[in-house]
Amino acid sequence: EAAVTQSPRSKVAVTGGKVTLSCHQTNNHDYMYWYRQDTGHGLRLIHYSYVADSTEKGDIPDGYKASRPSQENFSLILELASLSQTAVYFCASKDRDRGYEQYFGPGTRLTVL
Amino acid sequence: GQQVQQSPASLVLQEGENAELQCNFSSTATRLQWFYQHPGGRLVSLFYNPSGTKHTGRLTSTTVTNERRSSLHISSSQTTDSGTYFCAISNNNAPRFGAGTKLSVKP
Asked: Once rounded to an integer, what is the mean pLDDT over residues A17-28?
């Protein structure tokens, strides 16, 4: 079964600080995604990538950067964390050629104070 | 951009009752998926169903593409079905999710 791990699982950050969320997948999937989920809402796509060393903007990229240094790793970077970025962040991966099923990580709960 | 509307927003059932969850979308989606989020937060894919009807266990997904709607039917609900169900569409590789239907099944 596809394995997607995220670190840290939770984090408290200060406003204006830099935050890096990491995602690692072990199934050689081409696509990786970063979503955020606010309490009581669905997922919104921040950034995604379909190949190493390349990232694409999703629906809400402002305030976030992404990095895909290898096929296995995908990071989300908040250069200047703000209160409004408090949310749960999910990473997911998907194989390009084998169906459309996404495999999700367990999520990272980020609280910005 | 593409819009995804789910209804109802929440649903409470007694164990054994059936549920019908609806998803309406604003464009002809080539990829319609249903996801389930456990109460603890874990997300899993349920169906990829761009058109027609698919079954798995007590779950049935029916998508009518030209009417821009999909439904998820849960038969003989169980308490373990409690959680939130999302539909998502994408015409490229950037999925867009609905706000979800929160299902609570009482014993």
From this structure: 96
Tokens of A60: 């809400």
Q: Are B50 and B62 in contact (CB under 8 A)?
A: no
Contact A104 B48 (CB under 8 A): no
> Residues 6 or more apart from A98 whose CB is under 8 A from it?
none
Q: For chain B (length 107 residues), average pLDDT per consecutive 10? A: 88 97 84 92 90 94 93 97 93 83 97
Min Cα–Cα distance to chain B from A44, Å: 7
Residue of B nearest to A94 (CA): B93
Q: What angle do CA B66, B71, B74 make, to 5 degrees?
A: 160
B45 neighbourhood in chain A, CB within 8 Å = 101-103
